[in-house]
Amino acid sequence: MLRSVILAAARSSKIERLVGTAPVSRSLVRRYVAGETTAHAVATTRTLAADGLLATLDYLGEDTVVVEQADATRDEYLGLLAALKGEGLAGSAEVSVKLSALGQRIDPELAYDRAREICAAAEDAGTTVTVDMEDHTVTDSTLEIVQRLREDHPRTGAVLQAYLRRTEDDCKTQAAPDSRIRLCKGAYKEPESVAYQRSLDVDRSYVRCINALMAGEGYPMLATHDPRLIEIGIDRARWYDRGKESFEFQMLYGIRPTEQLRLAAEGYRMRVYVPYGDQWYGYLMRRMAERPANLAVFARSLWTK
Ligand code: FDA
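Above: inputs. Below: predicted complex with dihydroflavine-adenine dinucleotide.
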């Protein structure tokens, strides 16, 4: 119930204005967001790399309905990829892109064009792109665009959300040679007709999806902080005789950092999703919804300088 309310607020521009003008504690935003500029993203990548961690960098922003803003987002990614290349960090970081920030809701074809430019720049820099997954109304459109991006850039990654009832089948279809699939639980408010509502059902689906991805021929990217699912991932990789280089774990910046280091020290590929930029509202609200305990901290921070 609380999760639904927070996720509804994540989509409300009125509440966004209220929160945006409130003295939200800088430390709360900083816990989850690496900074505002390309330089912050690059510096964070360098720090993570020094600890043996990989990164995927996300320039914050979503649901763009202004063409100029979609172009500006593309330009930011092109600048970021040039900076990663210039700093010799392209081996340590890839980028994560939301199609809605590239104008998917205005015209999916234009979002595809912008994503294709980003994929080309990533390839030129020596790295890859993963296309984030948003709510279920754009699942088909997003997977279709990723499929087209893969024609020229086969290592373009897709994201599948275990809370969707369709996802086990999608995992089986998508786990083709060379594919890169990030499996997450799913962060949006979805109706019962398309998504499991009980966390136990989501977890069970996640396990079935791990099996489908590990049994397939692609590169699974297990994006979760859930200790049980991480153990199951390790167990399933052994079962399917996969080496540690044939899959990776992913976690969000600021969440379970000690566990991130532990997995990296044990030789697993561990990638940290690093958001940056000033459009942090929707992202932060989804993080609040994942952990009700965070809400008290958040509420206090609204009234604290
Ligand atoms: P769960 O929410 O059950 O958390 C397990 C444990 O992790 C908690 O008990 C707690 O200890 C810790 N934890 C989790 N969230 C926390 C938080 N916010 N603050 C503090 N502790 C927390 N979703 C989506 O819909 N589309 C996408 O493209 C992506 N992309 C993505 C990339 C990466 C790298 C990650 C890790 C996650 C995503 N997600 C996502 C988000 C994902 O769908 C999901 O909402 C979160 O990962 C939380 O789910 P967990 O699997 O961590 O389990």
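Residues 34-279 form a domain with the TIM Barrel fold (CATH 3.20.20.220).
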